[in-house]
Specification:
Pfam families: Ctr (PF04145). By secondary structure, the chain is mainly alpha-helical. The protein contains three helices and two strands. It has one domain.
């Protein structure tokens, strides 16, 4: 039976039928996985937005020290490559965002808190960089 309201239990089925938790160890490892994937989502979203900045020709934020990305974009091929990379990163972040949303829809309170905490930690460390690198974009975890 699928829950339609929040519940607090260590027994949860997450995303697929074979991902079931029956004891505290499984449940805590599931919560840790949800937290890590949420942080990873914010890291990828940060990289996607930085790539978007590069694609429109804005200067690099000073804290980036990656030699491979510091090259100037020359010609349409380079801009096309940035567009392709941006599209792939968007696809990956969208897929992860929707999976996180589906995990929250398990209505387990612990899973919900782990995902929100992971998104918060990821935002604090990877997306909260000040006004210089802000790109207006969707902030939803599923978009």
């Amino acid at each position: 039976m699928m829950h339609m309201t929040f519940y607090w239990s260590r027994k949860v089925t997450l995303l697929i039928d074979s991902w079931k938790t029956n004891d505290w160890t499984d449940y805590l490892l599931t919560l840790l996985a949800c937290l890590v994937v949420s942080v990873f989502y914010q890291i990828l979203e940060n990289r996607r937005l930085r790539l978007k900045l590069i694609g429109v020709g804005k200067p690099f934020p000073p804290e980036i020290v990656t030699p491979l990305l510091q090259r100037r974009l020359v010609g349409n091929r380079a801009k096309f490559g940035v567009k392709i990379a941006g599209a792939l990163l968007f696809a990956l972040t969208s897929a992860i965002g929707y999976l996180l949303m589906l995990a929250v829809m398990s209505f387990n309170g612990g899973v919900f808190l782990a995902i929100v905490l992971g998104l918060t930690i990821g935002y604090f460390f990877f997306r909260n960089e000040g006004e210089d690198s802000i790109v207006v974009d969707a902030s939803c975890a599923c978009a």
